[in-house]
């Protein structure tokens, strides 16, 4: 019960009416916001159990709920604060939520211990091959409303490739196939930059894997006798 967090009294309806006249009041949203309990407190489990109810009483504004979801030292508090934000997004927060003004890493990613800003994670899980964070799968239908993009832009993709080139053939295939779906926005200067950058893994004698430039290798042609 929420009453456990306050020195509450109850002497019956008539007696309580008298006490109310004396200044005894019901806990306000401010009172709930001042509850301070950490994991060593005997009421910690009860606090977590009732945390969503406490948030409802507090009715936190957008900044407060995002800070709770992003900065709490307790993973369970972060999880519950984020759930409250999502559950109440369209009824309470959407009209105040402007992605360009949000600068906290509150969005849980597909890696369960990782959080990201809306500008630092994406919906398309293919881009994780280059090292980008992906928003958690159950949130992808709402991700656009949070300002999360489907894919990184061309500049981010180029930087991702050059800063974190693939180190083996299988990884390279995954990366290059994804980039092939995103190449429409690439500029001439992008292609020029890539021509002179070492990002293609190749096996050489006495070296496990070496990275070479596109202009220093060739596409393998298939012998006509080979089965495709």
Automatic annotation (TrEMBL):
InterPro entries: DUF3684. Pfam families: DUF3684 (PF12449). This is Uncharacterized protein.
């Amino acid at each position: 019960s929420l009453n456990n967090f306050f020195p509450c009294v109850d002497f019956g309806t008539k007696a309580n009416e008298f006490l109310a006249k004396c200044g005894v009041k019901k806990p306000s949203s401010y009172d709930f916001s001042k509850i301070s309990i950490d994991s060593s407190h005997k009421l910690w489990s009860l606090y977590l159990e009732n945390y969503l109810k406490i948030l409802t009483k507090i009715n936190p504004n957008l900044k407060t709920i995002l800070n709770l979801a992003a900065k709490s030292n307790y993973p369970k508090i972060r999880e519950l604060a984020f759930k409250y934000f999502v559950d109440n997004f369209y009824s309470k927060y959407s009209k105040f939520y402007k992605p360009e003004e949000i600068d906290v890493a509150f969005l849980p990613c597909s890696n369960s211990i990782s959080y990201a800003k809306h500008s630092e994670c994406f919906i398309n899980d293919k881009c994780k091959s280059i090292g980008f964070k992906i928003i958690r799968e159950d949130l992808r239908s709402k991700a656009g409303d949070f300002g999360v993009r489907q894919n990184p832009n061309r500049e981010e993709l180029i930087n991702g490739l050059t800063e974190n080139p693939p180190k083996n053939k299988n990884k390279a295939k995954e990366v290059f196939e994804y980039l092939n779906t995103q190449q429409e926005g690439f500029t001439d200067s992008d292609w020029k930059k890539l021509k002179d950058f070492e990002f293609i893994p190749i096996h050489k004698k006495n070296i496990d894997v070496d990275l070479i430039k596109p202009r220093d290798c060739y596409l393998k042609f298939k012998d006509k006798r080979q089965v495709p």
